[in-house]
Description:
Largest sheet: none
CATH superfamily of the largest domain: MFS general substrate transporter like domains
Order of helices and strands: HHHHHHHHHHHH
Mean pLDDT: 85
CATH architecture of the largest domain: Up-down Bundle
Oligomer: single chain
Radius of gyration: 21 Å
Number of strands: 0
Number of domains: 2
Shape: globular
Strand content: under 5%
Structural class: mainly alpha
CATH class of the largest domain: Mainly Alpha
CATH topology of the largest domain: Growth Hormone, Chain: A
Amino acid sequence: MSPEELQQTRFDWDEYQQNFMLGCFFWGYLCTELPGGRLAEIIGARRVFGYSMLAASIITVVTPAAANLSYIAVIILRVLLGLMLGATWPAIHPMTARWIPPMERSQFISNMMASSLGAAITMPVCGYLIASLGWESVFYVTGVVGLLWSIAWFLVVFDSPAQHPRISNKERLFIENAIGSTTSHGKAHQVPWRQIFTSLPVWAIIITHGASVFGYFTVINQLPTYMKYILDFNIKEVIILFVFYKI
């Protein structure tokens, strides 16, 4: 029996359960996006991002065991995975404010958004693993890579130039002088919540970004199933098309 056939016959989960399992990730993700950014300002993005990725990697590694245990166990892990990863992207921005000079931030953010290239590389690798070793191998390989990445993160990343033990004085002074007092921890400014939530440009960003994210994750989560069961594509063909989509 091929790994693909084994995947089809192992779990007796109907379409509703499968979609529910995919969607419950976003329950957790939604809950920590705003708190994640604020928590990074309080205790540091290094810990928020690093520990979130470390926990997400552990969850990924144990997911196959949970799937063999029960459907509910997978649901719980998916929600926890969302909680962990929801805090990561917002945590990057406080760190950006402390490390990247203002004139270089747009280029830095643009390069950071090129992370889609990583997904374009990972997808064919995962497709090969599924076809060759079974679906569990994807969780094991990506989870272990995440664990190694988390170790590297804590070794090389620090919350500010002043805290980094290996940065040169010249580079530290350059960054601190370029940023100036933008990261000073003086009296907190009052946030103009009313002006923010009554601003038409803010709502334009919220609506367009929400629509973009909805469309993106709908494609990511649902199109593979449609291509496999309706268009009769195999896993390798689905992965190849998704690589072009991500690029």
